[in-house]
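Render this sequence as a predicted structure.
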Amino acid sequence: YSTPQADSIFESKATEIIRKVKQDVTRHRYGDEAHLDTTVKKLGLVVPGKAYPQLKELRQDVTEDGELAFSIVWQSLDTPYKMWADQKRVNKYSTFFGPGVYADCVKIDADQRLVAIRLTTGERKVAVEEPAAAEVEA
Protein backbone atom coordinates (compact mmCIF):
# COMPACT_ATOMS: atom_id res chain seq x y z
CA TYR A 1 0.00 0.00 0.00
CA SER A 2 1.32 3.41 -0.96
CA THR A 3 0.42 6.68 -2.64
CA PRO A 4 2.30 8.67 -5.30
CA GLN A 5 3.21 11.21 -2.59
CA ALA A 6 4.50 8.44 -0.31
CA ASP A 7 6.50 6.93 -3.19
CA SER A 8 8.12 10.31 -3.78
CA ILE A 9 8.92 10.76 -0.07
CA PHE A 10 10.31 7.20 0.00
CA GLU A 11 12.82 8.14 -2.71
CA SER A 12 14.07 11.16 -0.78
CA LYS A 13 13.73 10.05 2.86
CA ALA A 14 14.09 6.25 3.10
CA THR A 15 17.13 5.10 5.04
CA GLU A 16 19.44 2.41 3.72
CA ILE A 17 17.89 -0.14 6.09
CA ILE A 18 14.32 0.71 5.02
CA ARG A 19 15.38 0.35 1.39
CA LYS A 20 16.94 -3.05 2.15
CA VAL A 21 13.79 -4.24 3.95
CA LYS A 22 11.62 -3.22 1.00
CA GLN A 23 13.99 -4.84 -1.50
CA ASP A 24 14.15 -8.06 0.53
CA VAL A 25 10.38 -8.29 0.92
CA THR A 26 9.45 -7.44 -2.66
CA ARG A 27 11.86 -9.75 -4.45
CA HIS A 28 10.67 -13.28 -5.03
CA ARG A 29 12.83 -16.06 -3.70
CA TYR A 30 11.91 -19.43 -5.18
CA GLY A 31 10.55 -21.80 -2.54
CA ASP A 32 10.87 -19.22 0.22
CA GLU A 33 7.52 -18.18 1.63
CA ALA A 34 8.90 -16.61 4.79
CA HIS A 35 10.07 -13.01 4.69
CA LEU A 36 11.87 -11.45 7.64
CA ASP A 37 11.69 -14.61 9.79
CA THR A 38 15.17 -13.92 11.16
CA THR A 39 14.08 -10.36 11.96
CA VAL A 40 11.08 -11.36 14.10
CA LYS A 41 13.24 -13.98 15.82
CA LYS A 42 15.99 -11.45 16.63
CA LEU A 43 13.36 -9.05 17.95
CA GLY A 44 12.01 -11.72 20.30
CA LEU A 45 8.61 -11.93 18.60
CA VAL A 46 8.46 -15.71 18.17
CA VAL A 47 6.77 -17.74 20.89
CA PRO A 48 8.71 -21.03 21.33
CA GLY A 49 6.88 -23.92 19.70
CA LYS A 50 4.44 -21.62 17.89
CA ALA A 51 4.19 -20.36 14.33
CA TYR A 52 6.22 -17.34 13.27
CA PRO A 53 4.33 -14.11 12.56
CA GLN A 54 3.70 -13.91 8.80
CA LEU A 55 4.58 -10.79 6.85
CA LYS A 56 1.46 -9.50 5.09
CA GLU A 57 2.37 -6.17 3.51
CA LEU A 58 4.41 -3.01 3.55
CA ARG A 59 2.71 0.38 3.84
CA GLN A 60 4.18 3.75 2.95
CA ASP A 61 2.58 6.96 4.18
CA VAL A 62 3.58 10.57 4.65
CA THR A 63 3.34 12.12 8.12
CA GLU A 64 1.86 15.57 8.74
CA ASP A 65 5.37 17.02 8.90
CA GLY A 66 6.51 15.42 5.64
CA GLU A 67 8.39 12.41 6.97
CA LEU A 68 8.14 8.85 5.64
CA ALA A 69 6.11 6.40 7.74
CA PHE A 70 7.10 2.89 6.61
CA SER A 71 5.01 0.14 8.19
CA ILE A 72 5.86 -3.55 8.16
CA VAL A 73 2.58 -5.42 8.74
CA TRP A 74 2.44 -8.97 10.10
CA GLN A 75 -0.33 -11.40 10.91
CA SER A 76 0.56 -12.54 14.40
CA LEU A 77 -1.68 -15.47 15.32
CA ASP A 78 0.51 -16.80 18.15
CA THR A 79 2.49 -13.80 19.38
CA PRO A 80 0.25 -11.57 21.52
CA TYR A 81 -0.01 -7.86 20.74
CA LYS A 82 1.29 -6.98 24.22
CA MET A 83 4.61 -8.62 23.29
CA TRP A 84 4.84 -6.49 20.14
CA ALA A 85 3.87 -3.32 22.03
CA ASP A 86 6.17 -3.82 25.04
CA GLN A 87 8.02 -0.50 25.42
CA LYS A 88 11.47 -2.10 25.75
CA ARG A 89 10.83 -4.05 22.57
CA VAL A 90 9.55 -0.93 20.75
CA ASN A 91 12.77 0.85 21.76
CA LYS A 92 14.67 -2.13 20.34
CA TYR A 93 12.84 -1.74 16.99
CA SER A 94 14.20 1.82 16.70
CA THR A 95 17.74 0.59 17.35
CA PHE A 96 17.39 -2.50 15.15
CA PHE A 97 16.04 -0.59 12.13
CA GLY A 98 17.96 2.65 12.83
CA PRO A 99 19.68 5.00 12.56
CA GLY A 100 17.53 7.81 11.22
CA VAL A 101 14.17 6.35 12.25
CA TYR A 102 12.03 5.86 15.32
CA ALA A 103 9.58 3.01 15.76
CA ASP A 104 6.03 2.55 16.99
CA CYS A 105 3.87 -0.54 17.31
CA VAL A 106 0.44 -0.22 15.69
CA LYS A 107 -2.53 -2.57 16.07
CA ILE A 108 -3.94 -2.74 12.52
CA ASP A 109 -6.80 -5.24 12.92
CA ALA A 110 -7.49 -7.07 16.18
CA ASP A 111 -9.81 -9.68 14.60
CA GLN A 112 -7.27 -10.64 11.94
CA ARG A 113 -4.40 -10.27 14.45
CA LEU A 114 -2.58 -7.76 12.22
CA VAL A 115 0.15 -5.68 13.83
CA ALA A 116 2.70 -3.29 12.35
CA ILE A 117 6.07 -1.93 13.24
CA ARG A 118 5.92 1.62 11.90
CA LEU A 119 9.28 3.24 11.19
CA THR A 120 9.18 7.02 10.82
CA THR A 121 12.12 8.97 9.44
CA GLY A 122 13.56 11.89 11.36
CA GLU A 123 13.43 12.60 15.08
CA ARG A 124 10.55 11.58 17.33
CA LYS A 125 8.50 14.64 18.22
CA VAL A 126 8.38 15.02 21.98
CA ALA A 127 5.04 16.19 23.31
CA VAL A 128 5.38 19.42 25.26
CA GLU A 129 3.74 18.99 28.63
CA GLU A 130 2.27 21.90 30.51
CA PRO A 131 4.01 22.43 33.83
CA ALA A 132 1.83 21.37 36.74
CA ALA A 133 0.06 24.33 38.28
CA ALA A 134 1.54 25.15 41.65
CA GLU A 135 -0.92 24.70 44.45
CA VAL A 136 -1.88 27.97 46.05
CA GLU A 137 -1.87 27.82 49.82
CA ALA A 138 -4.79 29.54 51.56
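Summary. The helical segments are 4-13, 16-26, 37-42, 81-85, 87-97. The two ends are 60 Å apart (CA to CA).
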